[in-house]
Structures are given as C-alpha cells and as structure tokens.
Amino acid sequence: MDSSMLFQRELYESLRKYRDKIAVHSVQRDLTYEEVDRYSDIILCRLREAGIPQKAQVTLMMTSKIDIILAMTACLKGGYIFIPFDMEYPHQRLKTMFDSIDSTVILTDEANELSSKDIAAHKEVVTVILNEEFYSRKVFQISEFCEECYGDDDPIYIFYTSGSTGVPKAIVGRNKGLTHFINWEIETFQLDEQSRISQLTTPCHDPILRDVYAAFLCGGTTCIPENKEAVLDLNKLAKWMDDEKLTLIHCTPSLFQALNEIDLR
After folding, report:
1. In a 10 Å sphere around its CB, with 0-12 CB exposed, 13-18 middle and 19+ buried, how is residue 155 labelled?
2. CA-CA distance, 110 to 156, in Å (whole number)?
3. Coil, strand, or helix at residue 69?
4. Residue 4: enclosing H or E segment and its boundaries?
C-alpha cells in the first residue's frame, strides 16, 4: 500500500490540520482535534513508558465513550491492537472473552477498576487507569507519524461477535480494511468539515469505527448522546438528532424504521 494511504498517516494529518475544530461533541464536554491529539498522546506515552511493544493487545474496559475514543486513537498511533469491551455485559462473559485473547494490557477507569482486576485475575497484566489526574500528565515529546512503523496488513483491532450461536468469536481487523472503508464512506456520503455524525452504537462493535473515524478523517464532528436511555427512548433520540443538526446517522434498519415513523424536522 502507498504510505500516503496508511490510516495512521491520514489520522495524524487530520488531527493536526483541524486542530481548532470540534472533533467530539457530547453533553459532558467537547474535544477539539488538538485535545484528541494531546490526550491520546498521554495514553500512548504511558504505554510506551511501560514497555508495551507494538502489536500488543490492549483491552479497553471503561464506560466513557470519550475515554474509549481517546484510547482507540492512542492505540492506532502506537501500532497497538485495541479490544473494546462493553462493561455492561455479564461479568462471566467478559472473563471468557478476556481469557480467549493474548492481552496483557488494560486501559480502564475508576468505575471499572475492580471489575477489570477480577476479569484479568488469571493473567499478569499492566493496568492504566484513565481519570482527570492521568490526563493532566505532561508529554514532553508529541508523537509523530513514522512510516516504517506501520504496514497495510497490520492487525489494529479485535471485536467480538454477538455470540448468538454460542461463545462470542474474536474478529481481527487490519489497517488496509479500515483505511479502505473509511475513505469509501467519506467519498460515498461526501463528508467534509461540516459533517456531524451520530455515535449511537455500543463501543464493543466495529460500527463505532465509522462513527468516529469517518468524522475525524474529514474534519467533521462525531456526536454522542447523553446516555443509553436517550438512545432507547425514540422521542428523546429524535429530538437529540434534530437539536444536534446531524448530517449523517448510522443506525440499524430496525431503528431507522422506528425513527421514520416519528415526525423529524
């Protein structure tokens, strides 16, 4: 693959090019591209300080979608394989999932610190807790794109199937697949700096990648509802979509059908 098409190159370029624009919007807070760049560098720096090698599997066990976005971005920069968990899943299911992978690194938050310890009880792991104090750390050298550090066939994430037919199965995604899909979406839907894209899905499924990185690579904004209840209540969701002036909504066919029956302006 031409290095100009590597996902990491495009990501770095977007974070620097659109530095003053809003990258993530939520009720809790907004993040500019510069803040996404800086906070993800803080996470990346901590992983490197711990001696975590490239292509190591990093499990994300946190609740905040903003933390998840920052952690995914840090892993993409560093050449790590990120594995987002939905911490609302049954505890035993999470333990089974974690036991099935080779992850020895956990990024978590204070709310899920004890759960993450129990999930990883049978392994020796490095655990990093993301909180306000952590994000206040200083990074003395910002990360830069390193062409020889990445390859188009590199594994970059693992997501699990729903497990409806039995035990959830781990699916590995690679650099070239993500690059191709995100650029296809940007071109197909003519996304640009004015694009405002919904982020409705749970972080443990791969649609979160299009919600976030289709926005990031075109200078747009990914918009996060207040909480899960706001997504489950169709009237609240419809009002939120209208208030946010979304230009692209990612959702399941069943949700689309239900929303289509509501009077959206």
Report:
1. middle
2. 26
3. helix
4. none
Q: What is the pTM of this model?
A: 0.93
Burial (CB count <10 Å: 0-12, 13-18, 19+), residue 86: middle
Q: Is 42 exposed, middle or buried (0-12, 13-18, 19+ CB in 10 A)?
A: middle
Cα angle 202, 206, 207 (rounded to 5 degrees) comes to 70
3-state secondary structure of 34: helix
In this structure, the dihedral spanned by the alpha carbons of residues 222, 223, 227 and 228, taken in order and rounded to 10 degrees, is -70
How many CB atoms are located within 10 Å of the residue 66 CB? 19
pLDDT digits (tens, 9 = 90+) for 70-93: 999 999 999 999 999 999 999 999
Structure token digits, residue 148: 């020889």
